[in-house]
Amino acid sequence: MKDQYANYVVQKMIDMAEPAQRKIIMHKIRPHITTLRKYTYGKHILAKLEKYYLKNSADLGPIGGPPNGML
């Protein structure tokens, strides 16, 4: 996620995901927020997450993956 090219893939995943998939992606990235803040390219991902988080904060639910543990 901190790579100059790979961060675009993650951003595109966030953009193209269905709401349920986006929620899973957000919860998987959330533990890495502190590390991502240290990297220029990680900050792009955080900006994208903030965009969706602020827009849909009520829909995020509890931190963690789906109840069955599967993606």
TrEMBL record:
The PUM-HD domain is annotated at: 1-53
Q: Which GO terms describe its biological process?
A: miRNA processing; regulation of mRNA stability
Q: Which InterPro entries match?
A: ARM-like, ARM-type_fold, PUM-HD, Pumilio_RNA-bd_rpt
Cellular component GO terms, alphabetical: cytosol
The family database entries (PROSITE patterns) matched by this protein are listed as: PUM, PUM_HD
Origin, by domain of life? Eukaryota
Keywords, alphabetical: Repeat
Q: Which GO terms describe its molecular function?
A: mRNA 3'-UTR binding
Q: Where are the Pumilio repeats?
A: 1-27
Name-wise, this protein is PUM-HD domain-containing protein
Source organism of this protein record: Ficedula albicollis
Tell me the organism's taxonomic lineage. Eukaryota, Metazoa, Chordata, Craniata, Vertebrata
